[in-house]
Amino acid sequence: MGLSTHVLDTMHGTPAAGMQVALYRTDGDTATLLKQFALSPDGRNPDGLLLDKHSLKRGTYRLVFDVAGYFKQRGVALPEPNFLNQVRLDFGVAQADQHYHVPLLVSPWSYSTYRGS
After folding, report:
1. Rounded CA gap, 111 and 19, in Å?
2. Which of 27, 54, 91, 103 is deepest in the core (most CB within 10 A)?
3. Who contacts 101 (Cβ-Cβ below 8 Å, separation ≥6)?
């Protein structure tokens, strides 16, 4: 139970190691930063869950992934301005007693997400 994420770099076919990520709790137009971290070599939060079962509350959240910074760090030549800079995923937690996994599949030109398990 809790909240987790995982990022896969679909351009290189690898986890997005080193990508910077920020987690916010949102309330309307207000966003409160809860945590910032760089993804581990397997593309996950190095500390495990983003929020454990006691910290995850019903409400709305935002994950912000620094996609352009990650691909520039990997040496990918991006046009200026680049197509994707930061990917911002706003999502809701309706049942805080369940596990919410928010994966991101990303390239410099596209991304997709879903509620995983």
Report:
1. 14
2. 103
3. 3, 4, 5, 6, 115, 116, 117
Residue owning tokens 């809860």: 34
The per-residue pLDDT string of the chain (117 residues; one tens digit each, 9 = 90 and over) reads: 899 999 999 999 999 999 999 999 999 999 999 999 999 999 999 999 999 999 999 999 999 999 999 999 999 999 999 999 999 999 999 999 999 999 999 999 999 999 998
Contact 50, 5 (CB under 8 A): yes
Residue-range domains of the chain with CATH:
2-113 (2.60.40.180)
Name the residue with tokens 């397997």. Answer: 42
